[in-house]
TrEMBL record:
Lineage of source species: Bacteria, Pseudomonadati, Bacteroidota, Flavobacteriia, Flavobacteriales
The name this protein goes by in its record: Histidine kinase
Origin species: Antarcticibacterium arcticum
Transmembrane segments: 713-737
Gene Ontology terms for molecular function: DNA binding; kinase activity
GO biological process entries: regulation of DNA-templated transcription
Entry keyword annotation includes Transmembrane helix: yes
Keywords: Kinase, Membrane, Transferase, Transmembrane, Transmembrane helix
Family matches, as InterPro entries: Ig-like_fold (IPR013783), Quinoprotein_ADH-like_sf (IPR011047), Sig_transdc_resp-reg_C-effctor (IPR016032), WD40/YVTN_repeat-like_dom_sf (IPR015943), WH-like_DNA-bd_sf (IPR036388)
UniProt key word Transcription: no
SUPFAM superfamilies: C-terminal effector domain of the bipartite response regulators, Quinoprotein alcohol dehydrogenase-like
């Protein structure tokens, strides 16, 4: 920690602060022609009631809504010379042209020319240079005439040389050439103001109301009118500046402050009570010294320049010093010593005073740190460690570069130096220098835990705890403290917070527990993860947020202030930020190309009164088609492929603008460049909420817009109606089909039942017929067997008779009996009856047999039928009236006639095939 300086030195430093204050400037935003996308020259600037900035530009009307710039060219493409915001309109004047701009129902800024209201009146090469409102009417001033617009018509008031106009004490005041100052009466006549001899022969270029006074400006002097007499403004120093820099415009920004725009040297901020002036010009950060227009709102003044547009936050608690030459580079430390300010940067160590920067002799190169110990200024440099005396670098250690230097508490004369290779101990009394053994790693920072223990941070490998002997010659121990979360140790840093050793590793805070000799989570800093501690001073702590690159100040109680990266002009030296306490309220912050001075008391007041304007939703389009904002936009589904919502946040201290989309596609995000873009939104109803957040996390009032995305054509109401019809048709078709199916099923069941019934009947009939057939087959078999038996008996009788025929006396009678027996054996009636019964059982047997074997005889057919009945030769022989041998011979002949294989069984052949 830095040694507290004696009270006397503090007074000297305060005196230094006052003498150096002229070098510091308020934050300045520069908007170049490339950034706003228009011409360089901006003739006039105005701010409307919502905080939107309008500029009269060579290429048209420029607008800035806090998010983005837009150029609105005139239809003629002429230069806009003047601009004036009144109620919902923005009036502009140009060459032989004047009119107003207003947003239509779609949020588009459209121009309406008032020239047609002049009818037959002709302007003569006139340009409108000034516009104001008075008693409900709008007045347009050129250098040759005055025109009045009463919302219905344009009235040419006067044709004369007009240089300026202003409203004062309820009257319209006009500056007419070199004639003086006049008031325009209700009857249209001009009345000169009294006692203005002091202005005789002078050309008045500007009029401005200042409380009860009217300020009158010429090119080289300032006058005032108190309602009765004119006089030269009492501050001769101010008039001297105006004469030197050439007055152009006057702007009253508060009861006690005025701003004068000049042609040659920027602006002059003037305090009437203190009678002091502050100049902002190119050296201060303006883009150009010729200021053509001014406007102020909430402490921020906007300047229309001959080359660009600038904005100066006159009420900012942060002031900046900037080296525009580029010589200084990135500043790593600031020190105040013997009423001088010293800057350590990547290009060397410099002294800074009212005469500018001067490089310390021999201090070229990167310097990391400046430290005042025992009223001696030291520098930790890339080439070593040095004392700074009489603007010279005097080596302390030049063996290697160093990062840090601290005083040993128990050895008043000894200093510890953290260098690129370890730790060195230096005695300023006798110049002795030695190294601490076995510390062979780079040491970026040193912190004392107690008189016998120090902590050293390695740039890449974490932190070490080192025990020291009293004489600082030897160490007791060197212990690397591990990381509890097992992650890396890159950029680990060590601090002392409330007398506790705190270590930041991987953006997580730990504290050292001496009982366990290890690190544990630091609960008091749980809200400051991802924050690196910069300094502890006056019971307050400065952190840098590694995520947002902003600063945080807190007392760990009720106070928590945040400075965004934007508020610091985006100039922080990332990773090497440093805050240097000057006194209880003033802190210095290192930056690229300079430094900033922060007034903590003013910062507290400002942050408690942050201006958070309500966001403005001014445009809604889908795929390039704009929609009316006075009703709920309803966009086709195809248009929802790309929905763009224009959002403005004018005149706000917010650090960001955010949105939340409520609906089927729930989305959140940050607004970029004043536009919110959604792609491929699903159909349905949506609510878009837009809000701003301050650096302190405070939310502004929310603006919202409701809109709907129509369903695709195949989900539209008409198509849904057709879907319903189709659905009903399908239901009807299904019902009809089911009815048909039911009928068919019923018919099928009936047919099946009928078929089953018929099959049952057929089966019954078949069984009956089969029974009859079987019965007939049995009957036929029985009849045939009986016939065979009969014939067999007859043949036996015939045989017996033949044996004893000689014994018969009546041979004729015997022959008659024999013939009768033969006839009975060969009875055709029996065969016919057999054939009839056989055909009933075996229908088409003979027909099929003859179709296959047409050469078969009747005797052959008879044998075939007997074989079909599975009768043996012995059974067949009586029926055919032949012997069994004759049957066998007949069978042989039949097989041959039918050309059957001898091995083929005739009975099986006939049964299977016929």
């Amino acid at each position: 920690m830095r040694i507290i300086l004696p009270f006397v030195l503090i007074l000297l430093l305060l005196q230094f602060k006052i003498s150096f204050s002229q070098e510091l400037t308020q934050p300045i935003q520069n908007f170049s022609s490339v950034q706003y996308g228009a011409a360089s020259q901006n003739w006039d600037v105005v701010i409307d009631s919502r905080g939107i900035i309008y500029s009269a530009n060579n290429e048209g009307l420029l607008s800035f809504d806090g998010q983005k710039w837009e150029l609105h060219p005139l239809p003629s493409g002429a230069i806009v010379r003047s601009v004036y915001a009144h109620q919902e309109r923005v009036y502009t004047g140009s060459y032989q042209e004047f009119g107003y701009w207003a947003r239509n129902r779609k949020g588009e800024l459209k121009y309406t020319s008032l020239m047609p209201l002049l009818k037959d009146y002709e302007m003569h090469n006139e340009e409108i240079w000034d516009i104001l409102s008075f008693q409900g009417s709008i007045y347009f001033r050129s250098f040759g005439a005055l025109y009045k617009y009463d919302q219905e018509k344009i009235i040419p008031v006067k044709n004369l040389v007009l240089n300026s106009m202003q409203v004062f004490n309820g009257k319209l005041i006009l500056a007419i050439g070199k004639q003086g100052i006049f008031s325009l009466e209700e009857n249209g006549e001009l009345s000169p103001l009294p006692k203005q001899e002091i202005l005789k022969g002078k050309t008045v270029i500007e009029l401005e109301k200042d409380g009860k006074d009217l300020l009158i400006g010429t090119r080289n002097a300032l006058y005032k009118f108190d309602g009765e007499t004119f006089s030269l403004y009492e501050d001769s120093n101010l008039n001297g500046l105006l004469e030197r820099y050439e007055l152009n415009h006057i702007l009253r920004i508060s009861d006690v402050e005025l701003v004068f725009a000049t042609v040659k040297n920027g602006i002059i901020q003037y305090n009437k009570n203190l009678k002091n002036s502050r100049i902002y010009n190119r050296n201060s950060g303006l883009q150009n010294n010729t200021v053509l227009g001014m406007a102020v709102r909430n402490g921020k003044i906007w300047l229309g320049l001959d080359n660009g547009i600038d904005a100066i936050n006159l009420s900012s608690p942060v002031n900046f010093y900037t080296d525009d030459t580029g010589e200084l580079g990135a500043v790593y430390d600031v020190a105040f010593h013997n009423s001088q300010i010293y800057l350590a940067s990547n290009t060397g160590v410099y002294q800074l005073n009212n005469n500018g920067l001067s490089l310390i002799e021999g201090a070229e190169g990167h310097s990391w740190n400046l430290e005042i110990i025992n009223n001696q200024l030291y520098s930790n440099h890339n080439t070593g460690t040095y004392r700074i005396e009489n603007l010279k670098f005097i080596p302390v250690e030049s063996r290697t570069g160093s990062f840090d230097i601290i005083k040993a508490p128990e050895n008043a004369g000894a200093l510890l130096i953290g260098n690129y290779t370890g730790i060195s101990i230096y005695s300023p009394e006798n110049g002795d220098l030695w190294e601490l053994n076995e510390v062979n790693f780079p040491v970026r920072k040193l912190i004392y835990e107690n008189p016998g223990v120090i902590w050293a941070s390695h740039p890449y490998e974490g932190v070490y705890r080192i025990g020291l002997e009293n004489d600082l010659k030897e160490h007791k121990f060197i212990r690397k403290i591990g990381n509890p979360n097992k992650k890396g140790n890159y950029r680990a840093d060590v601090f002392k917070v409330n007398n506790q050793i705190a270590v930041l590793k991987d953006n997580t805070w730990f504290k050292y527990n001496s009982f366990t000799d290890s690190l544990e989570i630091f609960g008091d800093l749980k809200d400051y993860q991802n924050h690196r501690l910069l300094v502890e001073a006056n019971n307050g702590y400065w952190f840098t947020n590694v995520n947002t690159n902003g600063l945080v100040y807190t007392d760990f109680k009720d106070l928590k202030l945040q400075l965004s990266f934007k508020e610091l002009n985006g100039r922080l030296v990332k990773g090497n930020e440093k805050v240097i306490p000057f006194n209880d309220s003033i802190f210095y912050l290192t930056l690229n190309d300079g430094f900033a001075r922060i007034n903590l008391n003013d910062l507290v007041r400002e942050k408690k009164n942050e201006n958070l304007s309500e966001p403005i939703i001014y445009h809604f389009s889908g795929s390039g088609q704009s929609y009316d904002l006075t009703s709920i936009p309803t966009i086709p589904y195809t248009t929802a492929r790309e929905v763009v919502i224009g959002v403005a946040l004018p005149d706000s201290d917010a650090s960001g603008l955010f949105y939340e989309l409520q609906g089927r596609n729930g989305l959140k995000g940050k607004v970029e460049n004043g536009e919110i873009k959604f792609q491929n939104l699903a159909y349905g109803d949506y609510i878009l909420m837009v809000y701003a957040l301050s650096p302190q996390g405070v939310s502004s009032n929310t603006s919202k817009i409701e809109f709907s995305v129509m369903p695709p054509w195949y989900l539209s109401n008409l198509v849904k109606f057709f879907y319903l019809l189709i659905f009903l048709f399908l239901i009807g078709m299904i019902y009809w089909f089911n009815r048909l199916k039911l009928k068919k099923h019923r018919r099928t069941l009936e047919q099946k039942y009928q078929k089953e019934h018929e099959e049952r009947l057929y089966k019954i009939e078949k069984e009956r017929l089969m029974g009859e057939i079987n019965s007939k087959r049995k009957e036929l078999a029985n009849t045939t067997l009986l016939g065979a038996r009969k014939n067999e008996v007859l043949m036996e009788i015939q045989g017996e008779l033949s044996k004893d025929k000689d014994k018969f006396s009546n041979q004729f009678r015997l022959k008659h009996i024999m013939n009768k027996i033969n006839r009975e054996i060969k009875n055709k009636d029996e065969w016919n009856l057999f054939e009839t019964n056989f055909n009933e059982l075996h229908e088409d047997f003979f027909k099929d047999l003859l179709s296959t074997y047409p050469k078969l005889s009747n005797k052959d057919l008879k044998l075939c039928s007997y074989l079909k009945m599975n009768m043996s030769s012995k059974e067949i022989a009586p029926l055919m009236g032949i012997t069994v041998r004759g049957v066998e011979v007949h069978r042989y002949r039949l097989r041959k006639k039918m050309k059957l294989d001898p091995k083929e069984n005739l009975t099986n052949f006939f049964i299977k095939n016929f």
